[in-house]
Design a protein that fits this description.
Layout (H helix, E strand, L loop, with lengths): L4 H22 L7 H14 L15 H22 L10 H26 L3 H10 L25 H16 L1 H12 L6 H36 L15 H15 L4 H14 L6 H29 L8 H23 L6 H9 L5 H11 L8 H33 L7
Helix pairs in contact: 1-11, 2-11, 2-15, 3-6, 3-10, 3-11, 3-14, 4-5, 4-6, 4-12, 5-7, 5-14, 6-10, 6-13, 7-8, 8-9, 8-10, 9-10, 12-13, 12-15, 14-15
Length: 422
């Protein structure tokens, strides 16, 4: 009896869910990350002559599926990251984060766009789209560099894990203005004008950022009050340990922000951080975080398996040496140099700043932004090559950072740097 496509898909999903539960513990002390395993699994299953009736994976053909699945994974990871951060939000306590976002990120986008324009010969708006799509960092693909589960110790995270987690929580939303800028440039035929720049700065930067932050903080404050202090006991869900409430907070903040034309990614992270500030030592934060972490792992497994399948069926067919060089330069030169410059004389030891500068993981957020832009702008002539460069860059990140994260952070922990989490 032949295996059906439905049966094959459900079988792969079941095995993926099992591996998502087992691999983090199995590989915790090895220079191999779960994303490496899932990506390799997808590549092997689709490349080997197994005669399984699996569906074709191609985000250019199934763009809406690619956009919404990656969107869901990103917002799940943002909620989990915000709930995990113990350090109180503040100008001084988050100094490393502000440097990475305010200095390193714009410099990296500008440098990547210039390299793509120079090496690939792309129009400026296509080069800007590539740079914006590759701007977000994504520690979900290297769990060793994330902060741990919530605790009642406000400063128990080392500077590396805190910086990379908080940076990823915010730059997923802060990359959006640059993606919209690329779309606006494409619609205008690549021409710049003072009116366009003013509208972009007011509407796509200031207004949408403000709406996203306001919705996130408001949602976190309101739901935090209900969950912990509601007059009616059935509404005080913190007393009942309902983990899926984290999903409700995630979808509510994201949906309201998007409906009001704000940045939903920013709203989700702001809601998570605000909720985390309520009753900071309460055990319920750990329940919420654990639920989102499990959901995030499952979605990550599906998407990395699909990425491997896409690679096996021709994702890199349109990759040129110039495109590969652009991805390698981002990882080996642009990210390290821009981040190191931003972190000069900043918090943490010299080694911690070096590690933070090196570990600029690219992943699911890049796939979302590219799928989002290709569905709304005229990038058809460059779409296949854009996907090839982005997939190659993420592939390099999964292998390079996935292999390096465990030994690097283990070395920092052994050195017992100030504030390191053991």
């Amino acid at each position: 009896m032949a295996i059906t496509t439905t049966g094959a898909v459900y079988g792969c999903l079941g095995l993926g869910a099992l591996l998502a539960a087992v691999l983090p513990r199995l590989l915790s002390r090895r220079p191999v990350s779960p994303p490496m395993v899932f990506l390799a699994s997808g590549l092997l299953v689709y490349a080997l002559p197994l005669s399984l009736p699996l569906p074709r994976v191609d985000p250019t053909e199934h763009r809406e599926w690619a956009e919404h699945l990656t969107e869901l994974c990103v917002i799940a990871s943002l909620m989990g990251a915000g709930l995990a951060i113990n350090r109180p939000f503040g100008r001084s306590s988050w100094r490393t984060t502000w440097r990475l976002l305010g200095v390193a990120m714009p410099l990296a986008i500008a440098a990547t766009a210039l390299v793509a324009w120079w090496l690939l010969g792309w129009p400026p708006y296509v080069a800007l789209l590539l740079a914006a799509a590759l701007a977000p960092t994504d520690p979900v693909l290297a769990s060793e560099v994330r902060v741990g589960e919530p605790s009642d110790h406000e400063y128990d995270e080392d500077e590396v894990r805190f910086a990379l987690t908080s940076e990823a929580g915010l730059n997923d939303g802060l990359a959006f203005p640059f993606v919209l800028g690329a779309l606006a440039l494409a619609a205008a035929g690549g021409g710049l004008s003072t009116g366009w720049i003013v509208h972009w700065a007011w509407s796509d930067v200031l207004l949408r950022l403000a709406v996203g932050v306001a919705v996130g903080v408001g949602t976190g404050l309101l739901l935090g009050r209900v969950l912990f202090h509601a007059a009616a006991r059935p509404l005080r869900l913190a007393e009942h340990g309902e983990g899926f409430v984290a999903l409700a907070v995630t979808l509510t903040s994201y949906g309201i922000a998007e409906s009001l034309h704000g940045y939903g990614f920013l709203a989700v992270f702001a809601a998570a951080c605000t909720l985390r500030s309520r009753e900071r030592g309460h055990e319920y934060h750990r329940v919420l975080h654990e639920f989102m972490e499990q959901m995030e792992r499952l979605l990550m497994a599906v998407l990395l398996f699909a990425t491997g399948a896409f690679i096996a069926t021709g994702a890199l067919a349109h990759l040129t040496w110039q495109g590969a060089a652009t991805g390698l330069l981002l990882h080996l030169l642009i990210r390290p140099l821009t981040s190191w410059a931003a972190l000069l004389r900043g918090p943490g030891s010299r080694k911690e700043r070096l590690v933070t500068s090196f570990l600029g993981i690219r992943g699911i957020g890049s796939f979302f932004y590219l799928a989002y832009a290709c569905g709304r702008g005229d990038f058809g002539a460059w779409e296949d090559e854009l996907w090839a460069v982005v997939v190659f860059t993420v592939l390099v990140s999964v292998v390079l950072h996935g292999a390096a994260a465990t030994p690097i952070t283990a070395h920092l922990d052994r050195k017992g740097g100030e504030g390191n989490r053991v």
